[in-house]
Amino acid sequence: MSRLHPAPTADRATAAQERLHASYWLETGDDPERAALAIAGEQSSGTFVALPGETPELRERAGARVERIELLDEAEAPSLPGAMAPAQGGRYRRCRLQLSWPMGNLGPSLPNLLSTVAGNLFELRQVSGLRLTGLGLPASFAQAYPGPAFGIAGTRRLAGVAQGPLVGTIIKPSVGLSPEETALQVRQLLDAGIDFIKDDELQADGPHCPFEQRVRAVMREVRAAAERTGRKAMVAFNLTGDLDQMRRRHDLVLAEGGTCIMVCLQSVGLVGVHALRLHAQLPIHGHRAGWGYLTRCPQLGWDYAPWQMLWRLAGVDHLHVNGLRNKFSEPDDSVIAAARAVLAGLWADAPLQAMPVFSSGQTGLQAHDTFAALGCADLIHTVGGGIFGHPDGVAAGVQALRESWSAALQGQPLTERAVHSPALRRALEFWR
User: Fold this and answer.
1) How is residue 347 annotated by DSSP?
2) Which of 74, 82, 332, 349 fits a disulfide with 91 by CB distance 3.0 to 4.6 angstroms?
3) Which has more confidence, 195 or 11?
4) What is the pTM of this model?
């Protein structure tokens, strides 16, 4: 198990000289340069009035810098309420903005990074729209945070899937099943040869399906299937809760022979996820429940690329990215951009790669386009209704999804593969 140790004094001195960079889309009724300076001051040494203690020397040492402003376009009306109105006859101007901060202000600390790049600046009157679009983190973060313990290679090893996607599913109905009913579904999926199974984000430790009883019932089936087949499917148990609860639940999954745990990232927070990572001996499957309130308004919040960096540093091995032609509001290009961000290295010597998880209204119909757009199959493809809704049963649903991916990897059209696959042929009749 990894533990976080303080950096040596010399390393701390070097880290203090590094700078953190953040990029934004900004809309303002004020002069953009003046608005940028207001943001920089609010997020570092300044406030709304000049103070005698904020000397030029202190500003030079601790103040945020405006590194770049690039004007884009203008708008008649503000995107957000409560913003400063432009001068008479003026318009709201939009620009790209890059700020930087000295690492001496915060050190390599994820909670304080969050306060610095995404704190009070969203509330300033000078801001009528603001979105965090990118982060450039110094290498001292890689030294301070362990990142994913398993990532792609470790996940493949534990799941027994050397190449291609992990073919997966979500237990449905999302809530309402008892531990025994959940275990029965898992047995059917294991008999069908599934690679990966996860709890729904709503299923944690309710009285109708207590966590401990669910884990024990499901793992009995997983162990039995492994004895029959020689291969153990990966099950991500949702242990979201208080920190002590999550540690105990992790230890139960480990003792029962489980190979994955799941946590709802926004519910637990950076500190909770990082503390769990330092305790865990299993991959952490990160669900992004609540992501929509951070991103759905184009003029407010976060892009996925900087957001996922924080969770990878905190130690998450799998990150949800939605899916192509999903049931939600996210367009396909955004989904692929998110998956590419998860796969991209953070630093050359510390890539900290995680595995993207495609989900939401998925079937085998998305396999070809997902593979073509991503350029690789280092992913988990979780399909719920597309498996459980197969007219010939769960086994046929798993087989149809696997055939779809096999065809995608070989560049073979689905209709051609379906000629020799009854399960896929039937699936194409109900997949929409």
Assistant:
1) B
2) 74
3) 195
4) 0.93
